[in-house]
Amino acid sequence: MLKKHVLEDIQKLQSICEQEEKIELKLNFDMLRSRKQNDVNDFFHYEDNQLVGFIGLYGFGNKVEICGMVAPSYRRKKIFSKLFSQALHICKKREYTEILLNAPGHSVSGREFLKQIPCSFTFSEYQMKWAKKELEEDNSFVTLRSSQSDKDIKIEMQIDVECFGMSLTEAAAYYEQLNTEEQQHHFMVEYDGQAVGKLRVSYDKSEAWIYGFGILPSYQKLGIGKAALKQVVLQQHQLGYDVFLEVEAKNKRALQLYETCGFNSYHVQDYYLYSF
Q1: Picking from 18-22, 126-130, 145-149, which range would have the lowest pLDDT averaged per residue?
Q2: pTM above 0.90, yes or no
Q3: Cβ contacts of residue 107 below 8 Å, gap of 6+?
Q4: Interstrand relation of 98-104 and 242-248 (parallel, antiparallel or unpaired)
């Protein structure tokens, strides 16, 4: 687990970088707060007791995402290149099959760095915020409940395999990692009393982020996803949270569903596949 003062240093540097370029970095603080003590996932560059460079690794089974930053006044000094080299060494040592580099869509400094390394653009992801639209719960056959049993875990992994293209090994490793993270709630989506979908809500101060939302393919196109989304949004709103989620730009059906339920895009994150 990263120490409190280190998390504060990361947040301070993040704020400086975001204000400079008018961007929003995806640093996954839910994962940063839950780091295992002996795992090397974070790389730092300090000067004069001030954090001026950072890169984090965010593993999901056999895949890993990399995101980082350097203070504007310390750029062009090869700081990020040095940190990236250290991070890449760990990625290769762990034999990740896929390395994704994340950069905010409007980050000029991010695009300039990516031009210097062997990678190719693969997809964009919209970050969306709910605009407090009036929603009606219109499907009494759909309910949400907490994920509790080993049977629920198996269904969650099955959904990751069938909906998100993971292997069973990747899904199991991913679930094990999620279990170490704090400030989140796993939900099962039930249709007529049977678990057919899942999602999780991760909390960051006044924000509730919806992740891993999936319905088994054989139960899709029945309005189950829409009903479940409405329920979780209303629940989190009533608890006092602003509600957010992320969706791949190429997933037009999911994007349309979220917009119908009152979500608006406000930031874009681009992902690049690193070439070994």
Answers
A1: 145-149
A2: no
A3: 21, 23
A4: unpaired
Residue 153 carries which DSSP code? H
Are the beta carbons of 245 and 225 closer than 8 angstroms?
no
Residues 40 and 158 in one domain: no
**Number of structural domains found in the chain:** 2
Q: Given 117, 141, 170, which residue is the final one in a domain?
A: 117
Query: Domain of 36?
Result: 4-117
Residue tagged 């991070």 (tokens): 87
Distances (CA, A) of 77 to 82, 87, 197: 10, 18, 48
Residue 167 inside a domain? The answer is yes
Q: Are strands 242-248 and 207-215 parallel, antiparallel or unpaired?
A: parallel
Q: Supply 124's token pair.
A: 């964009």
The 10s digit of each residue's pLDDT in 33-92 is 888 888 899 999 999 999 999 999 999 878 899 999 999 999 999 999 999 999 999 999
Considering the domain boundaries, does residue 275 fall inside one?
Answer: no
- Residue 138 sits in the same domain as residue 187: yes
- Mean of pLDDT over the chain: 93
Looking at 89, 117, 145, the residue that finishes a domain is: 117
Determine contact, residues 102/26, Cβ cutoff 8 Å. Answer: yes
What is the arrangement of strands in the sheet containing 194-204, beginning at the earlier edge strand? Answer: 42-47, 50-60, 63-70, 98-104, 263-274, 119-130, 242-248, 207-215, 194-204, 184-191, 142-146
